[in-house]
Amino acid sequence: MIFASDLDRTLIYSKTSMGQGINDEDLIPVELYKDEYISFMSKQALALLNDISQLATFIPVTTRTIEQYQRVFHIVNTYTPKYAITSNGANILFEGVPDVEWSAIVQSALKTSATHNEVKALFDEISSPEWALRGRLCDGIFFVIIIERDKLPASIIENLRNKLSILGWTLSIQGRKLYMIPSGISKGAALLHLKTRIGASYIASSGDSLLDESMLLAADFIIAPGHGELFDTYRFSSVYRFTESAGIKASEELLDGIKEAISMVSGMRTEKRRHYEKTNMV
């Protein structure tokens, strides 16, 4: 079994994203950047993640680059995940090292999308320093732009989204970040590749953004935080199950649900195996 989860605003939270009324003594720092702890998990969430990791293969899945993922020291060093998916699915790490086979598959998939230069030129046509503060090309694959979200011109961005779609790219906004990502790569594709490689038959998953949707659609059990881009899009539908809590408390609720689902499947399989052994005894 696999538990595949997004990190930011799903399992780990900055001080500004975790919500109100959180006591510092309930938090454990999980990310260090420039000698400062910038992301946290609650003690209860970590305890639940520990339990889940004993029952299933925990695979962190993130839009972060490899370097940014490695900053999340508590996940990387405490759980030492055998597999991790970074760069929105463009990289699969096997024991911390990029998987060469998957990299070749990704490079082939990228040929179906327009080049970085074409996308940058399209963005530069509509970009304004009033709302686009700075940006960069990540891992040579996708763009991330730091934005002033309150000043974002909605109609212009929607038009950009449509044009990018024609070019084989996806646009997603998460907090103060605007992502432009080739459609040929996704978290879901990377996860399905690992499912086959590991030989798993069951996936539980969680994530908070539309960039997580391909991963969620590859799963057998889904629960998502009651906040974020995915929640804003589907909150009034029955497409996904969302937590009642928002912020860092959502991580506790969703991990509790994941643990219950995985435990149930594990118990059913154990009972089925015992029944098989009993009925086939000589």
Strand order of the largest sheet: 4-1-12-13
Uncertain regions: pLDDT < 50 for 5+ in a row?
Answer: none
Q: Kindly name the structural category.
A: alpha/beta
The total domain count is: 2
Order of helices and strands: EEEHEHHEEEHHEEHEEHEHEHH
Instruction: Kindly report the average pLDDT value.
Output: 93
Number of helices: 10
- Globally, the shape reads globular
Question: Care to count the β-strands?
Answer: 13
By CATH, the superfamily of the largest domain comes out as HAD superfamily/HAD-like
* CATH T-level topology of the largest domain: Rossmann fold
CATH second-level architecture of the largest domain: 3-Layer(aba) Sandwich
Classify the beta-strand content into a percent band.
15-25%
Residue share in helix:
40-55%
Tell me about the largest β-sheet. 4 strands, parallel
**What is the top-level CATH class of the largest domain?**
Alpha Beta
First-to-last CA distance: 31 Å
In short:
This protein is 41% helix and 22% strand. The protein has 282 residues and is α/β, with parallel strands linked by helices. It has two domains: 2-108 and 186-279, 3-Layer(aba) Sandwich (Rossmann fold), CATH 3.40.50; 114-182, Gyrase A, domain 2.
